[in-house]
């Protein structure tokens, strides 16, 4: 049974460290040697100070002992040159290429008609000045609404993480090892099935490494896998009458997956709001050259290209982060690092079982 060996066998390194904690003064050299070895391991995992400074410069967290995820990228002010160099390969630029090219083509036609003696009727700048404030408010509200969905999704995954840890802690304290093992396995598998359910995927390979074959077959046969795992957790908790896991702890998991699945995944931003903002922006950008071509001439083309890139980019950022579970950034990195979150929960569940074994033998 690989899953039992995986969960129980991980306690061996912790148990091996117990004699060092109770060693007599004569063994202090060995303790100091172990400390030096741990320091060497930390240096190997996190790298030297210069390597950490390079990691901060490029915005990537690379320390293996850090709680941050390895795929997390953070912006640093010194990256401005790199950001300019990578502009042609930008994900946002690729997604807005169609409206950007359309408005640039319209601007070129207007400039050509102005230069070759067949100008179109000019527009006074006042209408665009008045409408600019309304357009800015629409873009801000649209982006803020999308970011609220993104942050709500991240907060709910934080709830799932904390509740899985709490459930695992109650299981190893109040249950016997025979009762706790299947519950710990399902707790570690719960974030995996939530992630795949929200992304519309199935990941039997990872589940086979965590669950018994019968559980994997049962999961493949149901549509709503998170609800099945929650039902199994309730069955296992009720099976042991002496357990101290409260109903509140189990229902918090049910509430978390309900919030993730219904409030965010099944409820997009109203389509009329997004459509009206897009139409407003297209009409605003396509008619603006008529108001400025008389003053700028052919310089209207680069000005309009920059303006459309900025405005359509803001709109597309809102469209991108509106779906935090399925959206991808550049280089196919998920917007929310759900795989790393699942890995963290699995690691913490195993560590909780390891800590329990260490405490019993200390």
Describe the structure.
This protein has 362 residues and is mostly helical. It is built from 17 helices and no strands. Helix 9 packs antiparallel against helix 15 (271-296), helix 9 packs parallel to helix 17 and helix 13 (225-239) runs antiparallel to helix 14. The chain starts with a helix and ends with a helix. Residues 1-62 have low confidence and may be disordered.
Summarize the structure.
The protein has 362 residues and is mainly alpha-helical.
Report strand %: under 5%
Query: If you average the pLDDT, what whole number results?
Result: 74
Low-confidence stretches: 1-62
What is the helix fraction of residues, given as a range? over 70%
What distance lies between the first and last C-alpha atoms, to the nearest angstrom? 27 Å
The secondary-structure element order is HHHHHHHHHHHHHHHHH
Shape: elongated
Largest sheet: none
Number of helices: 17
Rg from C-alpha positions? 28 Å
Structural class: mainly alpha
- E-strand count: 0
Descriptive keywords:
362 residues, disordered N terminus
Task: Outline the fold blueprint.
Layout: H1 2-9, H2 11-16, H3 18-21, H4 28-46, H5 49-58, H6 80-85, H7 91-95, H8 97-115, H9 126-174, H10 177-198, H11 204-208, H12 213-220, H13 225-239, H14 247-265, H15 271-296, H16 300-321, H17 338-361
């Amino acid at each position: 049974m690989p899953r039992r060996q995986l969960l129980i066998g991980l306690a061996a390194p912790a148990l091996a460290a117990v004699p060092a904690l109770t060693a007599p003064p004569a063994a202090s050299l060995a303790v100091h040697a172990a400390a030096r070895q741990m320091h060497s391991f930390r240096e190997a995992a996190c790298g030297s100070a210069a390597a950490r400074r390079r990691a901060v410069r490029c915005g990537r967290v690379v320390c293996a002992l850090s709680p941050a995820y390895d795929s997390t990228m953070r912006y640093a002010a010194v990256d401005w040159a790199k950001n300019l160099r990578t502009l042609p390969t930008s994900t946002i630029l690729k997604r807005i290429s169609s409206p950007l090219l359309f408005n640039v083509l319209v601007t070129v036609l207007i400039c050509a008609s102005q230069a070759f003696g067949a100008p179109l009727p000019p527009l006074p700048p006042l209408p665009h000045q008045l409408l600019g404030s309304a357009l800015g408010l629409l873009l801000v509200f649209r982006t803020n609404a999308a970011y609220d969905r993104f942050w709500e999704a991240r907060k709910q995954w934080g709830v799932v993480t904390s509740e899985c840890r709490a459930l695992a802690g109650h299981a190893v304290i109040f249950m016997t090892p025979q009762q706790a093992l299947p519950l710990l396995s399902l707790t570690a598998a719960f974030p995996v099935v939530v992630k795949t359910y929200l992304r519309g995927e199935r990941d039997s390979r990872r589940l086979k490494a965590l669950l018994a074959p019968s559980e994997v077959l049962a999961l493949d046969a149901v549509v709503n896998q998170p609800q099945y795992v929650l039902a199994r957790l309730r069955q296992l908790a009720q099976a042991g009458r002496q357990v101290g896991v409260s109903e509140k702890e189990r229902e918090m998991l049910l509430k978390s997956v309900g919030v993730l699945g219904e409030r965010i995944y099944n409820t997009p931003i109203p389509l009329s709001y997004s459509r009206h903002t897009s139409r407003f922006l297209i009409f605003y950008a396509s008619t603006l050259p008529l108001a400025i071509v008389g003053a700028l001439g052919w310089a209207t083309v680069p000005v309009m290209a920059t303006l459309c890139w900025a405005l359509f980019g803001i709109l597309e950022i809102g469209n991108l982060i509106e779906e935090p579970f399925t959206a991808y950034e550049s280089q196919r990195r998920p917007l929310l690092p759900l795989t790393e979150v699942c890995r963290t929960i699995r690691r913490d569940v195993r560590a909780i079982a390891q800590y329990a074994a260490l405490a019993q033998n200390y």
